[in-house]
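Chapter summary example.
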Amino acid sequence: MSTAQARRRPRTDLAARAWTGTVREYDLFKELVVGLVVVGLLVLGISAAFGSPDEASVTLKTWAAEAPADFVATATAELGGTSDTAGYGPPYNSTSDASQKLGPLDLQSFSGVRLPVDTANDFVIGPLKTLPSPPAALSAWTGADDKQRTDWAAAYADALSKAPDNDPAKVAPGNYGPVPALTAALLGMAKDGTLDGVLQSGGSFYNLDYTRSILFMGDGGYFPGLADGQHLTGDQWGMMNETGNYPGQSWLWLFSFWYQVEPIKSASNADLLAVLLMVVLTLLLTFLPFIPGLRSIPRWIPVHRLIWKDYYRRR
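The structure predicted for these 315 residues follows.
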């Protein structure tokens, strides 16, 4: 047969050849069902044995019911503008000298006040105005000037700190203006459960924004106390933990790590330092293949050859 004839002769389709190897029955549906059942049982069993507990959500209602004195003291601080949120700075307010800086670099203020929070109006006065029968003390508060409001709140906060068990009912008489009536009305509103809905609604139909509720609770002592009891604070590596001693998002350990070492641990701008350090490390990892010296480390320390020793042995 000539070469030209060989080219014109149709080739045998390899896919059409009969299989001459081992043949056995295979039920794909059976394999799928067995796999789902086995995996499902394993997931349910391991979850029941080792899954972390689901803690009940902390609400303003539970706070008001379990720590009313702390609630009233926090509401007073919100009225007086002395809470942590009131002095936080951007993105909540424009409090001077509140942002964390690195020399002249003020990253916290670059974005400006994007989530404006007026603690007195947003946490206390505004919610009270939504009541069917707002307290009469609102008119006294809104009719006073800023200095008078600050003096009333400061006097009542001082009296609360000196009262037995910080109990509002045991506060000594004084010139507190409408502050005791306002905080008492807000406490009743929280105990009824209506304050949660008001702070979370934000004027929309669905209650999906918990920013103001969390800020309000974070300004008190009750909420941080729960976090401390569950080992969730920063000095307990809480950023990567779930409740109690259960492990959480382990990939966050590197962020939390920097808050445990000096000088970041005691720095006033610890958040900024930790973020900038993580940015630098992320950039180093991203551009590692292009950085002379660093990209040669795998050749100097060939740990990968131990991991894939079978592959390199065959080579």
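To summarize the output: Residues 234-289 form one domain.
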